[in-house]
UniProtKB/TrEMBL annotation:
Transmembrane segments: none
Record's keyword terms, sorted: CBS domain
Taxonomic source organism: Streptomyces albiaxialis
Protein's recorded name: CBS domain-containing protein
SUPFAM superfamilies: CBS-domain pair
Length: 136
């Protein structure tokens, strides 16, 4: 089964200082890790988004995939139409907590050259995404 879940939009504006919880976007799509790359790209195109939060069967966040990442996988010589998101993700992470200071999260994202970072609770459930464009 392939899950796509929408989350309500956060009402707060992005502050100059504060925590990740103040700036994260909770509107992002969540999909199950058994979704194929081709379907994920279609979901992204339909939702006009550049990334998807990926969760396992138990609802735990396993990572985030970007349109650029999935396009590169699809265009590779090893690609088949059976490649699932779990095959693309590899190791879990990186993630951040909603309590993380914005300055720390921004630094980590720039250091790792991440455009977006999943925000998870203490149990590993996805709460939202911190995008670098939101974090400035």
């Amino acid at each position: 089964m392939t899950l796509v879940q929408m989350q309500p939009r956060t009402a707060s504006a992005t502050p100059a200082h504060g925590t990740v919880a103040d700036a994260m976007d909770t509107t992002g799509l969540r999909v199950c890790d058994d979704m194929t790359v081709e379907v994920a790209l279609s979901v992204m195109a339909g939702a006009r988004t550049g990334h998807l939060l990926v969760c396992d069967d138990s609802g735990l966040c396993t990572g985030l995939v970007t349109q650029d990442q999935l396009t590169a996988v699809r265009d590779s010589s090893a690609y088949t139409d059976r490649v699932q998101l779990r095959d693309v993700l590899g190791d879990r992470g990186p993630f951040t907590s909603p309590a993380t200071a914005m300055a720390e999260a921004q630094h980590a994202m720039r250091y790792r050259r991440l455009e977006a970072l999943p925000v998870v609770d203490e149990h590993g459930s996805a709460l939202g995404v911190l995008a670098l464009a939101l974090a400035r």
